[in-house]
Design goal:
- By secondary structure, this protein is mainly α.
- Helices cover about 85% and strands about 0% of the residues.
- The chain starts with a helix and ends with a helix.
Length: about 150
């Protein structure tokens, strides 16, 4: 039984690493394509007049900034959606707390103490989370880049 458990864990780890390796290979391929495009654009700009080079550079920068803005807008929309969801949850929890406090008035003292102990245990379980952002694994590099800038 223990060996089967270890074998299953090893297979899960192997699968996870293979998926991660595949994602990294895809990312490297995408970067290679981007590098090739940039090299071609650079070679084209070298053949242009100085004025045309400046104009081309400005167009490239405008395109880059536009794409970055679109990525940021998408991230903002996700964060706003998450904020709305969290606000709804907060309202629900506030209502539950108010209902609980209202019910406490009618409950005898020793029963109240028992329920307080239960409530503390529930709160500890609910605090078992790692962060406040929800995002897809493949969006992590973009999220980190945007947080840094």
């Amino acid at each position: 039984p223990f060996l089967r458990l270890l074998e299953a864990q090893l297979q899960d780890e192997r699968k996870e690493h293979e998926e991660e390796l595949e994602a990294l290979k895809n990312q490297v391929d995408a970067m290679k394509e981007e590098l090739e495009k940039q090299q071609q654009a650079f070679l084209q700009t070298l053949q242009l007049s100085p004025e045309a080079q400046v104009e081309f550079g400005l167009q490239q920068e405008m395109t880059r900034l536009t794409n970055e803005n679109l990525d940021l807008k998408e991230l903002l929309e996700k964060l706003e959606k998450n904020e709305k969801k969290l606000k709804k949850q907060l309202k629900i929890y506030i209502k539950k707390v108010q209902d609980f406090e209202a019910s406490q008035v009618a409950v005898p003292a020793e029963r109240r103490q028992h329920e307080r102990n239960m409530q503390v245990a529930v709160q500890r379980k609910e605090k078992d989370f790692q962060g406040m952002l929800e995002y897809y694994k493949e969006d992590e590099p973009l999220l980190i880049r945007n947080l840094i800038t």
